[in-house]
Specification:
This protein is of the alpha/beta class and 525 residues long. The strands form two sheets. Strands 4-3-5-7-6 form a five-stranded mixed sheet, covered by helices on one side. Strands 1-2 form a two-stranded antiparallel ribbon. The two termini are 49 Å apart. The chain has two domains: 369 residues, no CATH class; 88 residues, no CATH class. Helix content is 58%, strand content 7%.
C-alpha cells in the first residue's frame, strides 16, 4: 500500500505538467455531445455521428466533463487528474490480482513493475482512450481469474467484477471482446480436468450452470456498455459494425519513422511491435515477463500443478501475448508506437510479478537461500533504471526507450518519440514567459500569430486567447515545432527549447521579418 500511496502523491503533485494528447480536444468535444444527448432526453443525437468517436465509448470523457463542473480546475487539468485516478485504480487492481495469484511478493513485484513502467505511467495521464481501456481490461481479467478460482460456483462478488470489467472494457473499445478468447482457451485445462474427474455429462451440466449464474453479470455489463457507449445499443449489430470498421485502416495513409526509415503506416513490418516492446519496456519487466511465459508453458504439462492454476496462468499469458501475435500475423496499420497495445502491459507486469515470487520461492532452501539477497538486489537495481529515466524525461515518460535501445538519445534518430506533441504545452508556456520577460506585446488590435508544426490544439489551449494558431508560416510571428522528423530545423533565433536527455522535443523560433515557406521537412500526406 505504501508504494501505491507514493505513486498517488507523485501523481497528485505533477498531473498538471502533462499537456494535451493529439486526440484530447476531440475527446472533450465528444464528452460534451454525449452529456448533451443525455440532458436532452436523447433528442440531441449529434454524439451518435461525431467523427468516428461514436464507435468508441466515452465513459472517461464524460466523467472528466462532469467533474470539471465541480472541481476548481481547468478542463484539461481535470482530464489529467481523472487519468491519474484511473491509472491508480489499474495499479491497485494489478496489485490485488497478482497477490491473489502468487502471494504478497508477487503482488508487490507486479505493482512496482507496472508503476515504474514509463510507457504505462506516461499514458495514464494523457491518453483518454488506451489507458482507461487497459485498466478496464485488467478489471475484467480479475473477474476471469476469480471465476477460475471459484469454478463452478462463482460468488456474487465475482459476477459483479466480471460484469463491471466486461461493460467498461467493451464499452471503451470493441477490442475488449478479445477476453472471450482468453477465457475459452485459458479455461481448457480446467475443462479437461472437469471432464476427467466428473465425466462428460456432469462437466457440461456444471458449465451450463456457471453460464446461467453469470447472466446477471452479463446484463450489468451490457447496461454499462450502453451507458458509456450509447451507439453500441442503438442497434444490436452496431458492436459488430465497429469491429468491422476497425479491422481495416480508415484514414489517409501517412509515414512514420521506424528503425531509421520512413514507412507508410499500413506497410509497417511484422517486427514493429516486437521491436518497440523490446526497446521501450524496462529491461527488468521484459526479463521477468519472458520468464513468466516460459514457466507458464512448462507448467501446462506438470501433473502436480492444479488445473485452476494452469488456467489462470494461461489466461494471463494470452492476455499479454495474443493481441501482439494477432497483429504480427494480420499486419494491420500500426502507428503511434505501442499506445494501442498499452492494455497488454498490466498482464505482462502480472506475469513478471508472479515469476519473481516463484524465483524467491525456488531460492528459499538451504542450498540456494544465500542467493535470495542477490535476486532482491538485482530486482531493486532493475527498478532504478526506469525510475531514473522517468525522472529525467518528466513529463514525457511515454517516450521512454530503455538502455538496450540507448535511451531516447539513440532512439531519436530511429524512432518517433513525442508523437502526440505533449512538449507543445511546455513550449507554449516558455513562449509566454519569454514575451513577458521581454515585455513584448502584439501590435494594437492584433494577436501574436504562431505557426505550429504538430497538433495545433495543445498549443492553442496552452497559449490561450491572446494568440492565433495556424499552419501558415508566412504571416506568423513565431514558429513552434516538434522535434520530430517531419518538422524543419529553422535558421531563425530560438526563443524556447524543450530538451530531455539532450534530445530536442520542441522549439519556438522568432520568425518575425523572415520568409519561411513551410515548417514541414516532407510533403504533407
Amino acid at each position: 500500500m505504501f508504494a501505491l500511496a507514493a505513486v498517488a502523491v507523485v501523481a497528485g503533485l505533477t498531473f498538471r505538467d502533462y499537456g494535451l494528447g493529439w486526440d484530447d480536444y476531440t475527446h472533450a468535444e465528444y464528452a460534451d455531445l454525449l452529456l448533451r444527448m443525455y440532458g436532452s432526453g436523447f433528442r440531441d443525437q449529434a454524439a451518435l455521428s461525431f467523427a468516428n468517436l461514436y464507435m468508441y465509448g466515452g465513459g472517461f470523457d464524460m466523467v472528466a466533463a462532469l467533474l470539471h463542473k465541480i472541481l476548481p480546475l481547468e478542463l484539461f487539468e481535470t482530464r489529467r487528474l481523472v487519468g491519474a485516478i484511473v491509472g491508480l485504480i489499474g495499479l491497485g487492481v494489478t496489485w490485488r490480482l497478482a497477490r491473489r495469484i502468487g502471494g504478497a511478493v508477487a503482488g508487490l513485484a507486479a505493482l512496482l513493475l507496472l508503476a515504474l513502467c514509463p510507457i504505462f505511467y506516461g499514458h495514464m495521464f494523457m491518453n483518454p482512450k488506451d489507458a482507461p481501456f487497459a485498466v478496464a481490461m485488467v478489471v475484467l481479467l480479475m473477474g476471469l481469474v476469480r471465476l477460475a478460482d471459484e469454478y463452478p460456483y462463482p460468488s456474487p462478488r465475482t459476477i459483479l467484477v466480471l460484469g463491471l470489467g466486461a461493460g467498461f472494457s467493451i464499452g471503451s473499445r470493441i477490442l475488449g471482446g478479445m477476453a472471450v478468447v482468453y477465457a475459452m482457451v485459458g479455461f481448457m485445462p480446467l475443462f479437461i480436468e472437469e471432464y476427467r474427474t466428473q465425466g462428460a455429462r456432469e462437466a457440461v451440466r456444471r458449465f451450463a450452470s456457471v453460464l446461467y449464474m453469470l447472466i446477471p453479470g452479463l446484463i450489468l455489463g451490457y447496461l454499462i456498455m450502453g451507458l458509456i457507449w450509447p451507439w453500441s445499443i442503438i442497434e444490436p449489430a452496431n458492436p459488430f459494425r465497429a469491429l468491422t470498421y476497425f479491422s481495416h485502416f480508415f484514414e489517409k495513409p501517412w509515414k512514420e519513422m521506424f528503425d531509421g526509415a520512413l514507412v507508410s503506416v499500413p506497410d509497417m513490418p511484422w517486427s514493429y511491435l516486437p521491436t518497440l516492446f523490446a526497446l521501450q519496456l524496462p529491461e527488468l519487466m521484459i526479463a521477468l515477463f519472458v520468464a513468466g511465459v516460459v514457466a507458464t508453458l512448462m507448467s501446462l504439462s506438470r501433473p502436480d500443478m492444479p488445473a485452476r492454476q494452469k488456467s489462470i496462468l494461461l489466461m494471463l499469458t494470452l492476455a499479454a501475448t495474443l493481441p501482439i501475435l494477432i497483429a504480427i500475423v494480420k499486419r494491420p496499420a500500426l502507428y503511434n508506437g505501442i499506445r494501442h497495445f498499452v492494455f497488454v502491459i498490466p498482464p505482462m507486469a502480472l506475469l513478471g510479478g508472479v515469476a519473481f515470487a516463484w524465483l524467491l520461492s525456488w531460492l528459499n532452501n538451504d542450498e540456494r537461500r544465500s542467493w535470495q539477497p542477490v535476486a532482491i538486489a538485482a530486482f531493486c537495481f532493475g527498478l532504478l533504471l526506469p525510475l531514473a529515466e522517468m525522472i529525467r524525461l518528466h513529463p514525457y515518460q511515454y517516450t521512454h526507450f530503455n538502455y538496450i535501445a540507448g535511451t531516447v538519445r539513440e532512439a531519436d534518430t530511429r524512432f518517433m518519440l513525442d508523437y502526440w506533441g505533449l512538449a507543445l504545452k511546455q513550449a507554449s508556456d516558455g513562449l509566454k514567459e519569454q514575451l513577458d520577460e521581454r515585455q513584448e506585446v502584439p501590435p494594437i488590435g492584433h494577436k501574436w500569430k504562431v505557426a505550429v508544426c504538430g497538433p495545433q490544439r495543445p498549443a492553442q489551449v496552452a497559449l490561450g486567447p491572446d494568440f492565433t494558431i495556424g499552419w501558415d508560416s508566412h504571416a506568423a510571428d513565431f514558429a513552434m515545432t516538434l522535434g520530430e522528423f517531419y518538422c524543419k530545423g529553422l535558421t531563425a533565433p530560438v526563443m524556447v527549447e524543450i530538451k530531455r536527455d539532450d534530445v530536442v522535443f520542441a522549439r519556438v523560433y522568432d520568425i518575425r521579418g523572415r520568409s519561411i515557406s513551410s515548417l514541414l521537412s516532407i510533403p504533407a500526406p
